[in-house]
Write a structure and sequence with these properties.
The complex is a heterotrimer. Chain B is mostly helical. Chain B is built from 13 helices and 2 strands, in the order H-H-H-H-H-E-H-H-H-H-E-H-H-H-H. Helices cover about 40% and strands about 25% of the residues of chain C. Classes of the chains: A mainly alpha, B mainly alpha, C alpha/beta.
Amino acid sequence: MTNLFLLQLLNGMQFGILLFLIAAGLTLVFGIMDFVNLAHGVIYMVGAYLAVTFSQVTGSYGLGLLLTLPATLMVGLVLEILVFRKLYDRPHLDQVLATFGLVMIISEAVEMIWGSAPLSVEIPQFLSGSVPLIGPLRYPVFRLVVIGAGLLTALGLWLVITRTRIGMRLRAGAANRNMIAALGVDIRSLFTIIFAFGAMLAGFAGAMVAPILTVDPGMGESVLILAFVVIVIGGIGSVKGAFAAAILVGLVDTLGRSFGPILLRAIMDPSAASQAGRVLAPMLVYILMAIILALRPAGLFGAKS
Amino acid sequence: MRIIPTRAWAATALFTAFAILPFLADALDDSYLVVIATRIIAYAIAALALDLILGYGGLVSFGHAAYLGIGAYSVAILSRAGITDLGLHLAAAIAGAAIFATITGAISLRTKGIYFIMITLAFAQMGYFFFVSLSAYGGDDGVTLAQRSTLFGQPVLESDRALYYTAFALLLGLYLLAVAITRSRFGRVLTGTRENPVRMRAIGFSPFRYQLTAFVISGCMAAVAGVMLANQTNYVSPAFMDWHRSGELVVMVVFGGVGNLLGAVAGATVALLLEEWLSILTEHWPLLFGVILVMVVLYSRDGLSGLFRRRT
Amino acid sequence: MSLLEVRNLRKAYGALKVTDDLDLTVEEGEIHAIIGPNGAGKSTLIAQLSGESLSDGGSVRFADAEMMGMAMHRRVRAGISRSFQITSILPGFTALENVATAVQARTGSSFRFFSPVDQENRLNDQALEALDRVGIADRAFFRAGSLSHGEKRQLELAIALATRPRLLLLDEPLAGTSGQEAERLVEVMHSLRGQVTLVLIEHDMAAVFSLADRVSVLVYGQIIATGPPDIIRADPKVRQAYLGEESAGAGDVAD
């Protein structure tokens, strides 16, 4: 039982970190540009597909991953210049519609290029084993690497945001959008950089999970909406909030799925418990979001409105 | 806010066209036309419902497909229990939608702008996952309905034409209801909260109560659309609540011009016909649809709504 | 018993005390002007009195009832109405609909869904009356957003009046109006004397000294003097704290 708990804890961490990588770019874009980007999830998907292709072409997952980063950065740049840039001062409704259109285009394009059958990529040999944790418990090395890489990225992001000039501007901008203009920053290029960087983070997340999840055309969507939940819980514009909320959502979702039915068995008979658990578990994060919003409408780390 | 005669004429023309459509289908010997038209009418009801809060209340709900699902599953669940009456199906759908809208609306309406869009989307997704994990009703695969809803114990809706006219009657009734609401005292307060919520507070209104009421009314209307859709397809699955479906509803409303109830009906018609036409051209029609959508939003100066407002 | 009694009212943004243990008494029927240099906290005070923003502490008694913690829309129903420094109207509505909505707020339920509101003559008549009072009855069927700036100020006053307040808080009602429009607005405020109690923030000193029964001077979140206009004008403390700074800070933007 404790072993299972530890295992699921790690899985939850790993899922949370994945969500963070996706939510980080989104929350900056929301906070600083007041922009709704529904297409962020498909960029994550594109990252995964590119990682698969690049790995096959180069014969190395590591090289594939490295190539995916500049590629998704480019995807972000192109989308920003072609579409997003024209939408910043438009109503949210227009942004929602245009990016929804992009979701349709990119999803369909991915299906045309890679087909709708799920793809996968091999975990590189030296990362494919598992390491002992406690007693008989072992955990796949690759998943630990995903956790580690995610934590390193979060740390790097934190350093950029708290220790550098551009980070200071980002924080000022997230707190008060008018402030960036007052600081004399070239908003256009700052926005472009944030967008491209956010796209790269999403692409990185996609590439990281390509070996452990199936890569299919639907993979971006559920993650996108969970990333929304993360941002809403964490408070729009707060990277710190996004990190805390991502881990929270990852843990609640993963632990809820495995332990929900077990806990429910304490109060109802086993078959009813497993059924109720199955129904309730996927709803848990949304219930969590509802509770947090009811208490703090601006999220955990959001500015009070 | 006087009745614009051209609007009344346009409404008469559009609804007359819907009324005579089955005869046209007969003349063309094209029974598929009635099937498509029933689908269009069901979506028109949902778009009408969405426009009530989006156009008049300024509330961009990106989760209205949830109510389609609630309506559709009301049919599936009651039918399984041996209750086939359309009236009871509608009542259950409306009650279910009212409960869901009251709870999620009360939480969502504490927030504004982007938050509201994302939260309505998230709650709809919660509904989606609820039905995905409901294995008794097929989970992801959904369930096929053994029969359509009955009317006074009679299986009259088994005829496509009867189903069509039932849907049409509901659309007409709900359209007239929505028009009345927007012109009423309530409608004026709702529109006022869109225009300037602080001003509304400063004259003594609490926007929340009115917005929530509108949100619930809209949800209930959309659930009616779900009931009709389930009957039209004879099949119910979580796909009814897919967030793409919510997006399509917003597209329909905007195609027709936000805050223009007749426009919502027209928008649903245009969007679905465009879909039908594109899907004949290519199996990759969503790509074309997406390109059209992005182009129209980008290159009409005030977005789609501006483009269409100038026209009407 | 005075109509409005404010005691120890406080509000701080971080370390900045915008309202600092403020006391203020307003008598029924008077026109009470509040003057003070930019950044003294005048608009914040109006926001606190109207319930638009929350206070950190203190008490606001209106007509013998405690208003603290009461939401803005409830205070309106209790009889406190306000105008905004930056014009706040319903731009897509006609002028008449703007005012009729205010009348609707205090007459009958707004949970009526079926009968057309634009045919409720009682609402329209009272709205037209209020528009006439502020001098823009001829604009009744124009979109509010298309009115001139001065007309919007007049409309906002008509909206506030249509709520039939006992206490009307006016935040710089003359700001940005032309000479003629300002004259008309001052005339309207004069005509309200004795019917509605007015608390007025205004930078136009000529208007203040001609209208006000009493003047309070607000500096750094505190009332430093209250009295009839002539006494206030002569008060050396006021001259030093306020008038001196006013000329120095004349170029500042309004607070």
